[in-house]
Design a protein that fits this description.
It contains four helices and no strands. It has helices spanning about 10-15, 25-35, 40-70, 70-125.
Length: about 130
């Protein structure tokens, strides 16, 4: 990849080695394997590599920003759906709490009425 001749973004992306995008890729080992053996060439090699990596980084960041911008509306819509689901879950939780409270109250009232009915039945019905 030449740093002196500007390349279109597509060419920069195509020139990148696919190994760069794997988890097992070790950039330090890769760089050490490709270092020139002649000391005088090392400075030029390092500057060229740094410039090429900076250009590739800028191209990748630009592409990523373009992808985010292109999908911004879908992202916002998805976030709104998540917010709506969260609100629905909070409302459902409130309804469940109220339902449980009402059931507990109804159970308590039913037990109390049963006890009162049984008490009245014992005292009013002879031989019970």
């Amino acid at each position: 990849m030449s740093v002196l001749v500007p390349q279109p973004n597509e060419e920069v992306l195509e020139a990148l080695d696919a190994r760069y995008f794997t988890e097992s890729f070790d950039p330090v080992a890769h760089m050490l394997e490709n270092l020139p053996e002649i000391k005088d060439e090392l400075n030029v090699f390092m500057r060229t590599e740094i410039s090429a990596v900076d250009v590739a980084k800028d191209v990748i960041l630009t592409k990523l920003q373009d992808d985010v911008r292109a999908n911004y509306n879908a992202l916002i819509q998805g976030m709104k759906v998540v917010q709506d689901v969260d609100l629905d879950l909070v409302r459902a939780q409130i309804h469940v709490k109220n339902g449980r409270r009402l059931l507990a109250t109804a159970k308590h009232d039913l037990i109390m009425r049963y006890d009162v009915a049984e008490y009245l039945l014992v005292w009013t019905v002879p031989g019970y």
